[in-house]
Amino acid sequence: MKKETKIHSDMIYSGSLLKLHKDTVQTAFGQSNREIIKHPGASVIIPLTTNNTILFVKQFRYAINNFLIELPAGLIEKDESPDKTAIRELREEVGFSANSIKYIGKIWTAPGFCDELIYVYIAQNLIFDPLPKDYDEEIEVVELKQSQANEYIIDGKISDAKTIAALNIYSLL
After folding, report:
1. Quick one: which H or E segment has residue 97?
2. What architecture does CATH give domain 42-106+117-171?
């Protein structure tokens, strides 16, 4: 197998969050085009309470016109490490900081057309320490046992891919 190599790239769109590029690449079989969404990356956190529960967030997602139950997560800001993003998002979304935060894996969300990479963390020994929520997010905290979260996944009540993948990584530890 050979890696594809970029011959030329055109930026089609540049927004506040995403950029869309149309790249011409050399493949093993000739030239082809690839449309790629450039994404800053994100961190997702599994906040574990002393009651053996996990804190989730329920929020409206405009792109699918529905509410999702997800693990807290957020975009990596300019000049911010994935670790710092995890710490900030934990405080913004569920109102806690953690005495212990540990990186446990990563997830490529849609590598066929997007370079988004999500870093997965476990947060333990939580301390109430909220930051102001983002002005455009209305979030409800949902606390579930691991077994309840598994049932929610099976029942389709949790259908967010990053949440399912992060919980799967956690279950393999």
Report:
1. strand 96-108
2. Alpha-Beta Complex (3.90)
**69 pairs with which residues across the strands?**
58
**pLDDT tens, N- to C-terminus, the chain (173 residues):** 899 999 999 999 999 999 999 999 999 999 999 999 999 999 999 999 999 999 999 999 999 999 999 999 999 999 999 999 999 999 999 999 999 999 999 999 999 999 999 999 999 999 999 888 778 889 999 999 999 999 999 999 999 999 999 999 999 99
Q: Are 166 and 155 in contact (CB under 8 A)?
A: no
Question: Which structure tokens are listed for 85?
Answer: 């993003």
The pTM is what? 0.95
Residue 64 DSSP label: G
Q: CA nearest 13: which of 36, 33, 32?
A: 36
